Amino acid sequence: xxxxxxxxxxxxxxxxxxxxxxxxxxxxxxxxxxxxxxxxxxxxxxxxxxxxxxxxxxxxxxxxxxxxxxxxxxxxxxxxxxxxxxxxxxxxxxxxxxxxxxxxxxxxxxxxxxxxxxxx
Length: 120
Hints:
Elements: H1 2-16, H2 24-48, H3 51-70, H4 76-98, H5 116-119
Helix pairs in contact: 1-2, 2-3, 2-4, 3-4
């Protein structure tokens, strides 16, 4: 959730410098920040495999999307990208939870590591 708060603070900082939120620079910077949030969320989700982490980030990013599609400042680009990022984080969270490498079945060759006993 800190990532989404950072996104909001970054947007506020950009707007405070005189860049209009509806401008091309405002939209492009917001989309870039959303992509950064997607990258951080992917790292968090794969690292901890915790659906609560992905749910919190999805909630924040989805509200950015809904807000930009339905409220001022309106931006279809940012709204659609934010909702797409929310969906991608949800898919990543479900995949990370279902593909848990630490508990994979060694007989299927997934998630196996070579131990000292197997080499000797």
